[in-house]
From TrEMBL:
Source species of the chain: Petrolisthes cinctipes (Flat porcelain crab)
GO cellular component labels: endoplasmic reticulum membrane
Primary location recorded for the protein, binned into one broad class: membrane
Name of protein: Fatty acid desaturase domain-containing protein
Family in the record: Belongs to the fatty acid desaturase type 1 family.
Keyword terms of this UniProt record: Fatty acid biosynthesis, Fatty acid metabolism, Iron, Lipid biosynthesis, Lipid metabolism, Membrane, Oxidoreductase, Signal, Transmembrane, Transmembrane helix
Record carries keyword Lipid biosynthesis: yes
Amino acid sequence: MGAHRLWAHRSFKATFPLRAVLVLFQTISLQQHIHEWTQNHRIHHKYSETDADPHNAKRGLFFSHIGWMMYEKHPEFTSKIQRMDMKDIENDCLVMWQKKHYLSLALLVSFIIPTLVPWLCWGEHLLNAVMVPAFLRCLVLYHITWSVNSLAHWTGGKPYEKNIYPSQNAVVAFLAMGEGWHNYHHVFPWDYKTSEFGGFTNINFTTLIIKLCSKVGLAYDLKTVTPEMIEKRARRTGDGTYKGPSK
């Protein structure tokens, strides 16, 4: 929700308190600081499935899932990322503060606190306190996130654009709280819902959270796409599985 829909795509705006909470959550996830995550994601969208894409799905399922972090970066990626405009991110004081203190913050909120709380508060065995809320939590979260880069680029329908790898994957959407409707997302990346139908209709819990934040004034300027634009694009470039807007 934070690094992806707010900072990477600017699909909505958030007040300072909400941004602070999202910075905390991103740090807990232990998936790079927001500046680096956003930079990688923007280049992924701009050069999707090319050598400049950090997790290019054309290089195979393993590479797009985890292999991209094991291999030396392709020269095209290295060249393009140096020219990626990140001024909007660099003007965000919270994001840059997180970047400056990322290692110490990540160690504290991802390992030290999750280990100490169960160990000291209810007498959990220290090994369990280390392995489950710290290491196992990170492992599960990593593979769910990586599945968006791999499985959601390999299997599923393509109702909006048939000539790209990103697909509609309900399993990934369920696990990643709405991030698996990837064919839609790559066609309309600025839509805060990342799917045609938000909420429970398309298994999109993150959209429900953003809507709730909007209701209480924490999120605003939510960007979306008109049903007419969606249908026009689907009829023109989709794979024929588009069923039209919900009634």
